[in-house]
Sequence to fold (676 residues):
Amino acid sequence: MTAPHLSVRDLNVRIPTPGGVLHAVRGVNFDLMPGEVLGLVGESGSGKSVTLRSLIRLHRPPIQMTGTVEYGGQNLLAASDAKLRSVRGGQISMIFQEPMSALNPVLTVGEQIGENLREHKGLRGRAAQERAAELLDLTGIPSPRARLSDYPHQFSGGMRQRAMIAIALASEPQLLLADEPTTALDVTIQDQILRLLLRLREELHMSVILVTHDLGVVAQTCDRVAVMYGGRLVETAGVNDLFHAPKHAYTLGLLQSLPGAGEHRRPLQPIPGGPPDLRSLPPGCPFAPRCAYVTEACRTGEPPLLEVAPGRFSACIHYDELPALKSTLEEVGV
Amino acid sequence: MTVPLSKSTPPLMEIHSLTKTFPVAQSLLSRWRGQPRRAVQALTDVELTVRRGETLGIVGESGCGKSTLARTLVRLYDADRGSVRYGDLDVLSLRGPALRQYNRRVQMIFQDPYSSLNPRMTVEAVLREALSVHHMRPAAEQPARVRELLQLVGLPPEAAGRLPHEFSGGQRQRIGIARALALEPECLIADELVSALDVSVQAQVVNLLLELQERLDLTVLFVAHDLRLVRHISHRVAVMYLGRVVEVSDTEAIFTAPRHPYTQALLAAAPTLDPSRRTAAPAITGELPSPLNVPSGCAFRTRCPHAFERCATERPALLKLEDGPEVACHLYDPVSTAQATG
Ligand SMILES: Nc1ncnc2c1ncn2[C@@H]1O[C@H](COP(=O)(O)OP(=O)(O)OP(=O)(O)O)[C@@H](O)[C@H]1O
Ligand SMILES: Nc1ncnc2c1ncn2[C@@H]1O[C@H](COP(=O)(O)OP(=O)(O)OP(=O)(O)O)[C@@H](O)[C@H]1O
Ligand code: SF4
Ligand code: SF4
Ligand SMILES: [Mg+2]
Ligand SMILES: [Mg+2]
Fold:
C-alpha cells in the first residue's frame, strides 16, 4: 500500500473571540493519498477555510492550533519557520477564497508569478516571463503576454482568481490547497479550470484538497469527499458512494435540499434550523437539533467518525437506518 | 398547485429593442487625439415578453447584462433606446407620481442582502419606511402590517426590533423580500436572490418565493446563474449572451432541447450531480469577448463551433421557430438553410 501524501491527526483550532473561545476545528482526522482530489464540503461557517489554512500553519496567535499534519516525514505544525517557508508556495500551494486579499496590489501579475518561479523553480528573466505567460494561458486568460504587465486591479474578479491559480501552479506543487477556486467564475470558465486541475493531477501527480459549496463541482472533480459540520468531519466517502447513498443524516439533508428532476416548482426540502454556535456546543451530535432521525442516544455523547463500510467513515449513530436518497442525480444536462 | 400558464396568457411586460450602454472614462490623451468615446455595450436590442403570473428565469455568463436589464426595467438606469410596455404604461417615459406608482407595482430585490439594508435601522423601521414612503398604510395601522409581513416571510414577531447584523444571510434575504412585499407589488425582479446562500438556506428562500407567488399572484423575473434552481422554479427561461437575448423558451425545452449553440455550451459546462457522468471534452473554449469590443455579426461567433461566413457580417435576429422557442442564430434562419442546401 502507498503511504498517504498528507496525514492529519486530531487537528484542533481554537479562536479566542469577545464572546468566548470559538472551537472552529474539532479533532479532524484524514489522509490524502498521492494524486488524490479530496473535496471538502459543508455549510458556511462549518470550518472548511480554517482547516485548510491550518494545514500550512497560516493562523497566527492568539489563534491556537494543536494536532499533527504529517507531510514528507515531518509534522508541519511543529516544523521550523524556515522549513515551513520553503514548503509553502513550493511543494504546497494555496489558492485563497478572496483573491484580492491574497494578491499584492503593487506588483504586476507577471512579477508575482515570476517571484514564485524564481524562488521555487530557479527561473529568471526571459525564461521566467515565458513560463509566466504560459501559466496565464493555461488558466484561459486571453493575450497572456500582454496581461503580464497588468496590476491586479486591472483584472476582473474572475481573472484575478485565475491569476491566483497561475501563481499557485508556478512551482508545480505536489499538493494544492484550493479554497473555492472557481466560485467567482462562469460555468464555462469554471469547467476549463477544473479540467486544468485534473490534467495537472495526472501530469504532476499532484494531490488536491478542493473546498467548495458547489456539489456539482465535487461530483465532477473529486475522488473522495469529506463533509464538515460544526468543525468536525462527519462523513468521508468515495464520490460515487457519497452521492448515491449518503451515510450521515446531514449529508442526506444536504443532497435532499437540492432541486431534483421531475419536481418542477414543488417545494424543496431544506434542513430546518441554522448552524450550531461553535462557542457553546450542546453535548452529543452537533446536528441533533436539526436532525429528522435524532434519538436519545444521539444526545448523550458526540458520535465519533467510524469506519462503517470499507473506505467509508461516518459519525452518525443511525447511518444504517437512513432512507434511500431520491433521485437528485438525473438533472440539468444535455 | 402550479399557476396554469398557457401560450395565451396575456403579457405583463413587453420589451422591445432595449439598449443600454455605459460610457467608459476617457483619458485626456485619447480625447486630444480625437479618439471616439468608448462604451460598454451592456444591453443591445433586447426583445422579451413577460407573461402575467409566470416565473421567467434569466441566465447567462457574468457580465452579459442580466443585472443591467433588471435595473433598467425598474428605471434605476435610463435606457439609451427601446421601449418597455407594462399593461398600458410606457415605462421608459414615466415621470413623477406615475413613476412612483410603477415602482411600487414592480419591485426589485437585490443580489446582496448585506449592502441593501441600512445597518442602523431595525427591521420594523425598514418596513415602516417602505409603507410610509408609498403611503401604503396610515401610521396607526403600520405595526400590525409589519407583523403580518414578518409572518408572511417566516420571521418571528421579535425580529421587528432587531438590526440587520443580528440575522443570518437567509434571514436577511427574507427581510429584503418583506420590504418588497410591503408595497403589494404585482411583479418581483429577483437578482441573484439566493446565490450567496447555503444550499439548505437557498431551499428555504425558494420555497418562500413559490408560496408567495401562489398566494399573491406574483409575476417573477428570476435572475440567477444556478441552472438547477432556474430549471426548478421557472416556467420559461431567457438566455442572454453579451447584452442580447439569444434564446427564449419553455423551461423543459431549454433544458432538454436547447437550440442556440451558446445555450448548448452553457448546459454542457454546468456540472451535473452524478459523479458517474463526467464529460470528456471541454464544453466550450475561448474567452468571453470584451463588452467594449463586441464582435461584429453574431456576438458568439468567436467561440461558436458552428460559425460560418454570414455570422461575421450579419447579426442574427431573435426569430420565433414554429414549435415555440425563439432563437437568435443563423442556423435556424430559413435564409441560411436555403443557402446551405441550395
Ligand atoms: N479570524 C477569525 N476570527 C474569529 N472567528 C473566525 C475567524 N476565522 C474564522 N472564524 C470563525 O470560524 C468558523 C469557521 O470559519 P471558516 O471560515 O472556516 O468557515 P467556512 O466553512 O470556510 O465557511 P464559508 O463557506 O462561509 O467560507 C466560523 O464560525 C467563523 O466565523
Ligand atoms: N454602472 C455601471 N457602469 C459601467 N459599466 C457597467 C455598470 N453596470 C454594469 N456595467 C457593465 O455592463 C456589463 C453588464 O453588467 P451586468 O452587471 O448587467 O452583468 P450581469 O449579467 O448581471 O453579470 P453578473 O452575473 O456578474 O452579475 C458589464 O460589462 C459591466 O461591466
Ligand atoms: S447521530 Fe443522530 S442526531 Fe446526529 S446525524 Fe445521526 S441520527 Fe442525526
Ligand atoms: S449565428 Fe453563427 S456564430 Fe452565432 S450562434 Fe449561430 S452559428 Fe454560431
Ligand atoms: Mg471558507
Ligand atoms: Mg448581476
Q: What stands out?
A: Residues 1-82+216-334 of chain A form a domain with the Rossmann fold fold (CATH 3.40.50.300). Residues B 22, 40, 42, 60, 62-68, 225, 291 surround adenosine-5'-triphosphate (ligand 2) (CB under 6 Å). Chain A has a mean pLDDT of 90.
